[in-house]
Amino acid sequence: MPPLDEFARIRSWTEHRQPKALLEKAGVSLGIGDDAAVIDGAPGMQWLLSADAMVERVHFLDETMEEADIGYKALAANVSDIAAMGGLPKHALISVCAPPAWNAMRIGRLYDGLYACANKYGVAVVGGDTTSAPEHLVISVTLVGVVEAGRAIKRSGAKPGHIVFLTGPTGLSAAGLHGLLMQSRGAPNVGTLPARLVQAHRRPAPSVKAGRLLLETSWGESLNDVSDGLASEAWEIAEASGAKLVLRESALPISGELASFASAQGKRALDWILYGGEDYVLLGTADGNRQVALQALFREEGLPFFVIGEVEEGTPGVMLETAFGVRKPLGKGGYNHFPEG
């Protein structure tokens, strides 16, 4: 039996566990396998349900994150999942498992950041749980959002003739993490770490407004948020849609701060852009005939919008076209909790 990666393991743990009739009776329109589940709710609306956990030493480190940043980011990751469906975040349940090293003051600062994110995005924190833990902190967030019935934007809508777009640059969070780690270890050649990279890692900005624009215009055909890395998310759309995505290296957005910092560190900015993750911008596809209108709409709203490739006929997968016009398969890469075995 071949080794199972993270996503194959999730499928093996969850597929065919419940009868279809049970799920339908419970109002499940879309279950496990996208950014959020879609559940039938009030007339004309559906619920979006998302859950994420952050584990100390796996998702965050004391050396790179303040307590308030951890709380903020834990909720922001869920808000991004709702944004990736074109929905609005509404209600959150927060569970915290705290080890002895996390005293009441530290947990208080964690909640300071969590509520800062909640208030910014209009999320009501309505409950949860707190327990002790033996060694490392775990924070788990369940977020409920809403979307117009039948209109949630899924990963599975990519078709030949679509453009591939991003609602912001990628790689900033990974570069920020690299710089913060180097600083914490006393590396002599870190230099000045751009504030934008630090902010991208500690306090990411989910693209809720962009997701709503794509839904309200009906111009977003498929959508995914960039949590595990651009390459990985592109593959998720390709596999869900049965489509071939071609990304153009020359079209990938790169911030000046990222380019200069990568050069100073002797790193390839492209590696962070493709495989960094935790940027929480949106990756999606749209009808190529809508490109000009979408660019104009996002410009009017003061939001970034980058066309980075196309969807073509062919075997489902992801290709990268280099600056020299050479195409090569793009590996999934990105973060994987269970890479093998």
Automatic annotation (TrEMBL):
Residue ranges occupied by any PurM-like C-terminal domain in the UniProt entry: 159-315
UniProt-annotated binding residues for ATP: Y111, G128, D129, R155, S227
EC main group: transferase
Entry binding sites for Mg(2+) 3: D35, D81, D225
Residues that bind Mg(2+) 2: D52, D81
Binding site for Mg(2+) 4: D35, S50, D81
Annotated metabolic or biological route of this protein: Cofactor biosynthesis; thiamine diphosphate biosynthesis; thiamine diphosphate from thiamine phosphate: step 1/1
SUPFAM superfamilies for this protein: PurM C-terminal domain-like, PurM N-terminal domain-like
Superkingdom, taxonomy of origin: Bacteria
Domain PurM-like N-terminal: 33-147
Catalytic activity: thiamine phosphate + ATP = thiamine diphosphate + ADP
Misc remark: Reaction mechanism of ThiL seems to utilize a direct, inline transfer of the gamma-phosphate of ATP to TMP rather than a phosphorylated enzyme intermediate.
Family, similarity comment: Belongs to the thiamine-monophosphate kinase family.
Official protein name in the record: Thiamine-monophosphate kinase
Organism: Cohnella soli
Lineage: Bacteria, Bacillati, Bacillota, Bacilli, Bacillales
Name of the gene this protein is made from: thiL
